[in-house]
Each structure stands twice: as C-alpha cells, then as structure tokens.
Amino acid sequence: MIDKFIADEWKIIEEGFDPKTNRFSESIFSLGNEHMGLRGNFEEGYSGDSLQGTYVAGIYYPDKTRVGWWKIGYPEFFAKVINSTNWIGIDVEIDGNKLDLAHCNVKDFKRVLDMKEGTLTRTFTWIGDEGKETSFVIKRFLSMAENNIACISIAATPLNYSGTFSFTPYLDGDVSNEDSNYGEKFWEEVNRNVNSNEALLTMKTKKTGFILSTAMDTKLILDSEEITVEKKLMSEKLASKEKYVGYKLEIPVEQGCRIEIQKFVSVCTSRDYEEDILEKVTLDKLRSATQKGYEELFKEHCEVMERKWEDSDVVIEGDVKAQQGIRYNIFQLNQTYTGKDPRLNIGPKGFTGEKYGGSTYWDTEAFCFPFYLYTNENVARNLLYYRYLHLERAKENARKLGFKGALYPMVTMDGQECHNEWEITFEEIHRNAAIAYAIYNYTNYTGDRSYLFQYGIEVLVETSRFWADRVNYNPRKDKYMILGVTGPNEYENNVNNNWYTNTMAAWNLEYTLASLDEIKKNDEKRYHELMTKLQLKQDELSKWRDIIDKMYYPYVEELGIFEQNDLYMDKEQMLVKDLPPEVLPLNKHWSWDRILRSCFIKQADVIQGIYFLPERFDVECTKRNFDFYEPRTVHESSLSPSIYSIVASRIGYEEKAYELYLRTARLDLDNYNDDTDDGVHLTSMAGTWAAIVQGFAGVNVINGKLCLNPYVPEQWESYSFKITFRGRKLKIYVHKKQVIVEQLSGEPVSINVFDKEYLSQTGNDISVKI
Ligand code: BGC
Questions:
Q1: Residue with CA at minimum distance from ligand 1 atom 3
Q2: Distance of alpha carbon 490 from alpha carbon 425, whole angstroms
Q3: What pLDDT digit, counting tens, does each position of 518-565 carry?
Q4: 490 assigned to active site
Q5: DSSP 676-732
Q6: 3-state DSSP: the chain helix, strand, coil percent, rounded to 5?
Q7: Which residues contact 450 (CB under 8 A, 6 or more apart)?
Q8: Type and span of the H or E element at 769
Q9: 638 Cα nearest atom in ligand 1
Q10: Is-cis flag, bond preceding 585, omega within 30?
Q11: Alpha-carbon torsion 588, 589, 592, 597, what sign?
Q12: Distance 602 CA to ligand 1 centre (A)
C-alpha cells in the first residue's frame, strides 16, 4: 500500500522523484492508443532501475514453452507481447553533461498524467555543475485520432546561465523482454536509414515475422520561432550500434530563452500494411504529421479524448479519491482497447507491462465486457467477433485434447492456447462458458439478434459440443458430472464437479438450444443452413437436453448452499479473518501444497455463477452463499472483489459492497497488492466500473427492459454515468434521495426504476425518490 499521488479529479500527480518506486510510477504513467502503448519511461534515458516497455498491439513472439515434464496437449509456446522499438528516446546534454535522473540533482520534480487530455508531463529543474539551473517541461501523447502517430516535446530553459544544448533523438530497436525465457532477443534489423529529413528503422520479429517500421522527425523551436540546425548523423555510433538510428542537434541557448524539441513518430506494422509498402506508409504518415504540427495533432487527439469521456465518464461527488480512482481505470481501459480492430483484445496488463504477455484471457468476456457493452455496443460486438475469428483454432484446440467441438484457449494471442500450466490449460475449461455468456449478454442488452444469428450461434454450438463430450455420465447416480477441472478459484486444482463449471456448462447448452429455437422461429432459411453447415442432428440436440436435465450440482443440504465442488466441505473450514495477517497474501507465504488443500478461495467462484445468472437465485439463496463464501475468499485475484461487490449490492449489503469496491477501485494507484511494478490490473479496472453501474446503480436488462435499482454509498454524495441502450443515450444521476434518468437521444423507452415502470424521453427526465 502506498499513498503517493495527490488527490485530483482529472489528474494523477506525483511530486518528487523517488528512484525506489520508479517501476511502480512507470506502470501508472503508461499511455496507449489501442495500436500501441508504453510505460512511463523517461525520454532522456535513465540508468537506474527501470522496466523499459514500448508495445505494439498484436505484435507478439511465441516464446518456447519451458516445462520439466512435457504433457501431450501442452501448447508449444507462450505468446508474449514484446518490447519493441523504443521511440521516445531523446538524449539531452548541456555543455557536455548528460541529463540522467539516476545521477542528476533535480528539484521541483512533478509528473502529471492528465486523464482528460491523455498526456504525460514532467516538470523539474536540473541543478548542474556550478549551480547551473535548467527548467524542463517534457510532454508526450499518443494520438487517439491517428493511432500510428505519437508526439513528444522537451522544452528547456537555462535559468541562470547560457550554454550549449544538444538533443539526440533516436529510435532504438535493440530491446528485449525481461521475462524472455532464454534471454533471447526477439527482433532482427531489416533496414535503417537516416538522412537530413528523417530517420527510419525497420525491424522484424524472429519466428512470427512481424515487421515494424518506425520513423521520426523533429523540429526545434527557440522562443516560439522554428529554427533549423544541422542534423549530425553520428556516424560512429550508427556504425557501432545495431538496430539504432539517431542524430544530434546542437544549439547555443542564452539565459532565459526557451529551447524546445518536438519529436514526431510514426509506427506502422505489417499487420496493417503489405511489406512492400510498409516503409513508404510509415514515412508518409510521419510527413503528414510533421506538416500538421504538434498543436494541430494535439487538438485532434483531444477531440477524440473528449468524445471518449463523453461516453464513458463516471462522475462521483463527495469523494475526490474515488473520482480519481474510477477515472484512472476508465482512462486505462480506453487507452488499451477502443474496438477499432476486431483482431485485437484486452491483455490483463494492457500496455503497461510484460506480465500475462498481453494475451487474451476469459477476463475479457467475464469482467471487461459490460464496460464496453454499456458504453459502446459496436466495440462489444467486435470483442465477440474476435472469438468468432478464432473458432477454427478453438476446434483444433479441442481436437488436440481429444474432444469434439471447440475449447477456447485460456490464454491466447492468435486463437491458439498458449498457457503452459496444465491445471489451467487442460482444466480451467469454464472459460468456454464465459465466451458463450458474452454472446448472451450482448444479445440480451442490445436486443440485436443479428450477431447471434450470423456468428454467435456457431460459437454456441461448438462450445456445446465440447461440453457434451467432456461430461461424464454416472449411471450410479443417473447424473452427468464434469470431473478433473479447475474452477475460477485457482487455489484448488483437479476438482470434480465444480459447481460453477457445471452450472455454466449446462447454461451454455441451454442457451444454445434456446438460440437454435429462436433462429428456427425467426429465420427458417438460416436455421436449415446452420443444420447443414454444422451437421446438427436431432439426436445430438436431445443429448444436450438430457445433459441439462441431469447435470449434477453439489449442494450442502444443512447450509442450503451450493458446494464449490465435491469434497470442498471436507476441508478444514476456517475464515480469512482468523488468519494471522502476516500470512496474507497466501500466495506469497504459503506453499502451493498448503494453499491447494486449504478452504481459502482465490476469487469469486460460486458467487461468479450467481453474478452471471441472477434471475435463477433469489435473495435468500444468494445471501446464504455470499455469507458462506465471502469470509473464505482471500481475493488474491484482482478480479474478485468487484464481482462480490456487485452481488453484495444486489442483496442489500451496501457497506460490504462499498468495502469490496474500494479494494479494486484504487488497486493500482495505491499499489494495494504491492505488484503494480509489473503493470496495472487492467481487466479488473473494468470490474470497478461494473461495481458502480451494475452494483450500486443496479443496472440490468430483464425481458428486454432496462431496470435500475440504485443507491448511493454512504461515503459519496452522488454519482452519475452514461449508458447507451438500444439506440438511446441515457444519463443516470443517483443522488442520496433521488434518481434521475435524463434521456439525451433516441426514441422514448420505458424503464423500470425500483420495479416500477416509467417512460423515458428526451426533454422529460424521470425522477424517482429513493
Ligand atoms: C486469475 C484468472 C485470470 C488471470 C489473468 C489469474 O490470477 O485467477 O482468473 O484470468 O489472473 O487476469
């Protein structure tokens, strides 16, 4: 836990530079624009402890799987998003002395992430030899309007002397990943070129053969006048250093004058452009950006940022830290994924670190999906389509493990499984149902059946086929069982009949059958087309029905709760509150063996199922399960508290809901789990948004109708947010004593507030007393 940043509604402000927390700050000050992103590394370089990280979405490396005992079915590789060409670099020297915050004496250091405009700014004064003071303002942004473009500005003013400044802007492709398995470097140089106009570096990944072209140009501005200085090409350095291009600009600066270097960068990949035109496109984009200039590019970027906030902001009154926390989370989500490219997805760390390899997990469907669905349904549809594009691979994956149908990977970059822990690869099969659930979620919320009919149904059928093959029929009990699985609670492996997995598998089958019926009723042609294409026969469908009817669900009669899995109740039952605080988190203090055999739960498991299927469980049943499982949950996955918080809100446990919300809302800003150095917990950030909208405000769609069941946590005055719902934009304000629904656009629609129906229309707000 750390209390580092000044409370501010729109900014993350750090005052004073502390090398000990540099990695943490680097994670927090990450920026991205869906196409690319980077950690808060310093432009001028830094010789102290740092995790250099510049990432390009979709550019990965298949790092060879490393295990002691190979098991059939293991993925060959672990995909990782790799550190790529460092394009922020600008060495700064004054009278031959290099700026490096690891050695230089600086005062008034301040770093500000402005979330409204999406910029990172550092200001400080460097006190050099003989007390020479130079003030610096260093700012950068990754254009949200032109995703291939980024801009940096370094402005320096010698305060009490005149001296010679030199700037060496460069592109450095000689980078590696800290987590590379064999210390291997992933990039090879294809081409580099530097001339008096611009510099270009083209790199290619080994094995995957992705090509990345990066180009840069600069402008120098002395006291608001653009000036031209000869670009010294540093032939020695260029000759000796591979994968590097740069040049040096030298200029005398008088005391009190302001010298600014603006660096324009263009980053393009062979994912988007054919190899033979890639360099040309990169340079064309660079030239047009340089011509537009910093101010114009910044203006365009801010306009997109404004629109993003317009759609997705949550305003909290009465608690600045809470406001800062939720805005930070929304900011990072919007920086990582905007849904423009259905080949991309959301890595658990976004562009903020190497951990989890930037790959796609079930986190997308289970935790991130509502945020995108409620704020922009087209983005949500692209997330669904991503999985459709991977359907063939998911079928291969199932075949590889000896099953029919499709088993989506637990971790993936391109549709292939690339997780290499067997308990997860082979056993955490519940992920299939989360992918099916997202289709339901989208269809239920938007009312748009076209995705389901055209694409989703194939995913549903193939995931159902997998379940039907993976279940075991137990004739002694006349029940179907699912043996040898890991549920969402990864603190127990190889369990039988995980209640969540069984429930969601049967739900998946049921939803598939219901969807096929619906297609048959509404579009008979498509139905027959599907029956032929997917070779569906009546007896297969009857088998699914039989599995649904006879699925086995472990239950604890005497407590009236679902048993997490067979034998869970045979474990020694203890509560988290009775553990000595020094053993928490368990994963840092207990052996894996001890964890697996304990009753402690890593993250929502039974409660995850209750969260997904609220209409199946009444308040009393939900309470019984919540009261039993929450005290046994250590929430050692950041994904856990928000789900518990939403369920707590549903059963009226308002205080508990808020307490759980707080655990994730500022998880990274306050480094709650002491692990933000590795990058932020992006996918759990979406959960905090959901804890407000689905939890505190109780937004849900039941039988096609939007329902609200809101309250305000005691610590807040009020909160408000916007959602889009079936062609309408709605702003929902929740005050302590009343809820107001303001319709901003679209046709009138009837909405349920506290189970009572109201008509919402533009110009006529709904106002209901709480
Ligand atoms: C969680 C998984 C999650 C993964 C990536 C793990 O700690 O247990 O549910 O998919 O992190 O966020």
A1: 363
A2: 12
A3: 999 999 999 999 999 999 999 999 999 999 999 999 999 999 999 999
A4: yes
A5: GGG---HHHHHHHHHIIIIIIS--EEETTEEEE-----TT-SEEEEEEEETTEEEEE
A6: 35, 25, 35
A7: none
A8: strand 766-769
A9: 7
A10: yes
A11: negative
A12: 10
Alpha helices in 613-681 (DSSP H): 619-629, 640-650, 654-665
Catalytic option among 490, 563, 630, 742 = 490
Helices 320-336 and 682-690, packing angle to 10 deg: 130
SS3 520: helix
Measured in whole angstroms, the distance separating CA 396 from the mean position of its chain's CA atoms is 27
- Quick: pLDDT tens for 592-621: 999 999 999 999 999 999 999 999 999 999
- What DSSP designation does 455 have? I
Summary mean pLDDT of the chain: 96
Q: Whose CA is nearest to atom 1 of ligand 1?
A: 637
Task: Assess contact for 297 and 151: CB atoms under 8 A.
Answer: yes
Residue with the bigger pLDDT between 336 and 181: it is 336
DSSP 8-state assignment for residue 535: T
8-state DSSP, 7: P
DSSP 19: G
Question: Residue 236: pLDDT band by 50, 70, 90 thresholds?
Answer: low
603 C-beta closer than 6 A to ligand 1: yes
Spatial contact of 461 and 536, defined as CB atoms under 8 Å apart: yes
Closest CA to 691 of 604, 561, 562, 601: 604
Question: pLDDT tens-digit profile of 285-318?
Answer: 999 999 999 999 999 999 999 999 999 999 999 9
Assign 268 a pLDDT band (cuts: 50, 70, 90): very high
Both tokens assigned to 51: 């995790």
Distance CA 632, CA 56 (A): 40
Ordered DSSP codes for 267-331: EEETTTS-HHHHHHHHHHHHHHHHHH-HHHHHHHHHHHHHHHHHHH-EEEES-HHHHHHHHHHHH
For tokens 């707080």, the residue is 662
**What is each CA distance from 383 to 71, 148, 366, 459, 634, in whole angstroms?**
32, 22, 12, 13, 30
**639 close to ligand 1 (CB < 6 Angstrom):** yes
434-467 burial string, b = 16+ CB within 10 Å, else e?
bbbbbbbbbbebbeebebbbebbbebbbbbbbbb
Residue 235 has pLDDT above 70, yes or no: no
Ligand 1 atom with minimal separation from the 363 CA: 10
Ligand 1 pocket: which of 349, 352, 490 to mutate (most atoms within 8 A of CB): 490
User: Cα torsion at 459, 462, 463, 466 (round to 10°)?
Assistant: -170
Taking the alpha carbons of 593, 599, 600, 601 in that order, is the dihedral positive or negative? positive
Closest residue by Cα to atom 9, ligand 1, is 488
Could you tell me the distance, in angstroms and rounded to a whole number, from the CA of residue 591 to the centre of ligand 1? 19
Is residue 493 within 6 Å of ligand 1 at its C-beta?
no
Share of residues in the chain with pLDDT > 90 (%): 90
Residues 6+ apart with CB under 8 A from 183: 176
Residue nearest to atom 12 of ligand 1 (CA): 348
Q: What is the pLDDT of residues 142-151, one digit of tens each?
A: 999 999 999 9
* Beta-ladder partners of 107: 125
What ranges in 390-491 are assigned the alpha helix state H? 391-400, 422-425, 431-446, 450-451, 457-470
How far is 328 from 383, CA to CA, in rounded Å?
Answer: 22
Does ligand 1 come within 6 angstroms of the Cβ of 487? no
